[in-house]
Task: inverse folding
């Protein structure tokens, strides 16, 4: 091959690797909700409509959703979402995510759902258990759509 044919190829390879590097950096960035946090938005919406690899949202969430109080319309800040290996808070605690001041929770951390994990949502007076196992953290894809919103008190 002649040298002037190789130059554009090298250029292409370099720009491709820069592009891939940036993508990786974005995807690896850690973003986890915390009790006092106010960085989230769009309570009740299916967060992963946008927060996925290639979506408009900056972060790729492995788990995200919204918690409401017993009115099912007001948000419930300060709840805690936990994932267990067995139903009703049994087995091993795999993950704990704090619900932020806007009622939302989210995490970019890798979660190994394996054959399924069991969600528990803890409020001050009430722990709510999801009886069936989930293999996705896309909570608001069901809750607020085909299911009641997630709530506690
Ligand atoms: C319609 C698309 C869309 C939906 C749905 C959506 N987001 Fe976002 N989100 C974005 C975009 C775009 C950004 C980046 C720009 C910005 O900060 O507004 C963002 C930014 C964020 C940020 C980061 C703010 C920062 O620190 O830069 C958080 C946290 C967040 N979203 C949480 C959520 C949660 C939780 C949900 C679901 C309850 C959700 N988002 C639903 C599009 C969306
Ligand atoms: C694929 C759909 C789906 C997804 C995804 C899902 N859920 Fe559920 N959830 C359900 C269904 C159906 C029920 C009722 C039956 C049951 O408990 O298994 C339920 C029940 C619950 C309950 C108990 C409600 C009550 O009033 O007792 C809680 C709490 C809950 N889910 C939390 C979550 C959390 C947190 C997430 C995300 C980590 C999540 N769910 C993801 C479908 C889903």
Result:
């Amino acid at each position: 091959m002649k040298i002037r044919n190789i130059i554009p190829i090298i250029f292409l390879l370099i720009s491709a690797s820069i592009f891939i590097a940036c993508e990786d950096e974005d995807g690896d960035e850690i973003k986890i909700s915390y009790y006092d946090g106010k960085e989230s938005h769009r309570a009740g919406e299916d967060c992963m409509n946008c927060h996925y690899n290639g979506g408009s949202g900056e972060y790729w969430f492995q788990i995200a959703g919204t918690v409401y109080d017993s009115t099912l319309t007001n948000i419930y800040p300060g709840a805690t979402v936990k994932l267990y290996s067995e139903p009703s808070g049994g087995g091993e605690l795999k993950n704990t995510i704090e619900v932020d001041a806007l009622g939302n929770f989210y995490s970019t951390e890798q979660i190994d759902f394996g054959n399924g994990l069991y969600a528990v949502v803890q409020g001050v007076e009430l722990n709510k258990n999801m009886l069936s196992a989930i293999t996705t953290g896309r909570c608001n894809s069901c809750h607020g759509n085909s299911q009641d919103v997630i709530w506690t008190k």
